[in-house]
Amino acid sequence: MLKSVKGTSDIMSPDILLWQEVEASMAVVAKAYDYEEIRTPTIEMEELFLTSVGAGTDIVEKEMYAFPDKKGRRLVLRPEGTAAVCRSYVEHQMNLQPSPAKFYYTGSFFRYEQPQGGRKREFHSFGVEALGEQSPVQDVEVIDMVVTMLGRLGLNNLSVDINSIGDDTCRPAYKDSLRAALAAHEDELCEDCRRRMHDNPLRVLDCKKEDPALLDALPKSADFLCEECSDHFQRLVSCLSQLNIPYHVNHRLVRGLDYYTKTVFEVVSDDLGSQNALLGGGRYDYLVHQLGGPQTPAVGWGLGLERLTSVLAARYPNLVASLAIPRAYIVHSDSAVTAAFQLRHALAGNGWAVGIDARGDGFAKQLARASKRGSRLALILGDDELAAGTCTMKVLASGTQRTIPVSDVPSALQELTSGKDDARYVDR
Questions:
Q1: Can you give the pTM of this predicted structure?
Q2: N or C, which end of the chain is more exposed by having fewer CB within 10 Å?
Q3: Residue 179 and residue 163: Cα distance in Å, rounded?
Q4: Longest dimension (CA), the chain
Q5: CA dihedral 382, 388, 390, 396 (to 10 degrees)
Q6: 246-298: per-residue pLDDT in tens?
């Protein structure tokens, strides 16, 4: 028996209902913030990520799915979304359009790492990118947006871990200071960090193998910020305070990608214990230029949908069941096939999933199949109903039924669902 590839999974009913709800809810908020959807290819040129993510990162060194095509060009399955959006921005000369260009996206991404809880080799992300605006107010917007999204999904007690890692003006001095401090502890570092301290010492701050006490004692980026970066950061956190978005300055936060400048952040939930980060992002003011475009400030974030859906399912055990669409099943005689299809057309968009029995054998067998499919109602169209222009609605759980004009069936189904509780994310 063929099985799915290690680190990948099928997402299907009933779990897919939660995925659809999450993606749709987040898209509604993104559109309300004036962000447009963008869909980039699943495969990209390897050079895109060597240039953007950084040759010394774990993603490039250990995790990218890279391969030659039939003409020998080096391709990759995209490991993240920001670089692909920036490539599209440059390729289509979006800088000639009004700024900022603001996008949201969702899709599959790929990293070769050991599969574990909430971490897959094929994983799914929802992200946003805003390109063309350098104001810290733009940073605040993308943070405020995701806090709003998560709140709509029922996740509260949120706060933001935030830091500034400077830019090309002030970061070189910070890196030099880090290298000097790390050199005194080189024998204590893991093999990867002994190399990182020379190539990119900020990566050491992101290493989970190192002693937290050692990392806390290292120089802080905040002490090296130039006037512009310091002002940007102070305006950013001031605006977060005015919006009553709780934040904590985390001096060890650098994120795992080389393209970040100035702002880096993670949104965390106090309800999730030690593994409390839900997403991360930051500013990347040089990336578009590195990919061949004009100097373009930008900021964004990405959120793992496997992580988010598992958190929601654990927090709200009845959520998936509440999202199920009510089912009706049209039971019909041989002469009522056309009427059955016409009835389903009339019910389209009515909030019900309506099946039609394709076999058309006896009513008893059709009703049995309706029950097995989890249908709430059977809509019976026999010869008598066909002649009278009626439909018999039967509640399968109780066996109660009534006969009404076919034209009244859509409104009758709406009445059955009008009292549905929409407060699906309230603790019960």
A1: 0.90
A2: N
A3: 20
A4: 92
A5: -40
A6: 999 999 998 767 789 999 999 998 777 667 889 999 999 999 999 999 999 99
